[in-house]
Design a protein that fits this description.
Layout: H1 3-15, E1 23-30, E2 33-39, H2 48-62, H3 65-68, E3 71-77, H4 79-95
Parallel strand pairs: 2-3
Antiparallel strand pairs: 1-2
Helix pairs in contact: 1-2
Length: 96
């Protein structure tokens, strides 16, 4: 298992039962630094701070300090926001 897969698995386990239907991706932002992209309907109607607090609390409750040090950011989006991002990307590609 590579590091991206490992951190995806750790995030998935830590968020299990806390979020409705979470979709999780992990990207490498710098060598050995990772960001999680978390998409869930649970985030609908929540302020950004509340979303991030919920996600980070799960990380701190379930992921060791040794592993947490490599996770630098958690992006928290609703499915509708991700669909809008995808649509904007498609329009950019079509224009380009």
């Amino acid at each position: 298992m590579n590091r991206l897969e490992r951190y995806k698995e750790l995030l998935s386990r830590s968020l299990e039962g806390r979020l409705e239907s979470p979709e999780i991706r992990v990207i490498e932002t710098d060598p050995y630094r990772y960001a999680g992209i978390i998409v869930s309907p649970t985030f609908e109607g929540m302020e950004d701070d509340d979303r991030e607090r919920l996600a980070w609390q799960a990380v701190y409750d379930h992921i060791s300090e040794d592993d947490r040090q490599w996770i630098v950011f958690l992006y928290t989006h609703t499915p509708a926001e991700m669909a809008a991002f995808a649509e904007a990307d498609e329009q950019t590609i079509e224009k380009g």
